[in-house]
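Hey,
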Amino acid sequence: MGPGRRVRVAKCQMLLTCFLVLLLSLSVATLAVRAHFGDHFAVVSQASLERNPCEAMSHWVFYTGISLAGLLSLGAALSAAATTREAQGPLAMGFLCFALVFCSLVQVAFWRFHNPTQVEDAMLDTFDLVYHQAVRSPSRIRAQELAAIQDTFLCCGKRSPFQLLGSGEVDPCQGEKAAGEDCLQSIRSFLKTQQNIASMLTSAGLALTGYAMLLSSFLWAAVRSGRGLDRRGKYTLTPRACGCQAQELSRFTHSQGGPAPRHPSEAETLAGHQGPRGCLDEPHPLQG
């Protein structure tokens, strides 16, 4: 495979990769918005507690996801435009965007590996605080927040063999509600699905950004070495007929105010049609 064919294949792969990166950025932005404004996360993070561990986690996930989605979109747009126009500057900027996203995703994967239950613990701790304050005190606000969480997750209370309700506590799950699913299990099931989606997007992001960086480096080196597909800036000189060259030189001399040249004779005209070699070997001098 020749150099030109390799560049052409790399360009097609780069455009396809940019399209997939745009889809990935849209998915990341959707997941970030859902994690911040979705009913399941919002009903827990917006609980009016003195210390809500889920609220800070929700803000961190939202801003991180939106930033990564923006860098992915910018890198894909710059790389696609630079690939079609063969521009070195946008290719380098696209490579920088992909590198930043790749490093950020490596940090996210490292954090998920060492803290796999941090998000789950934050949501369960928040629910525990709301639940205990709702059953131990006659606060109407806590009761409404607990009811909103239970209605959103379609669950009721929490069941534990170590749970003992005192005389001042009221069990929120009585009658038909007692047959509902445990809220702790419901929250865990919901978070497991969301974490699986986040892991898939992280893996896809690492693969796409890594491959996009390789393609960007190759195309940048190809454009710099002049192995692009187009012929901009490259011209091929073709020989002219002697008659045309003599006429152009005659017009130039006449425009400079010099004496008018004499017209070539019939023999000189026939000699001018001998081809480029005759023109180069026997040029016709200008006469005043």
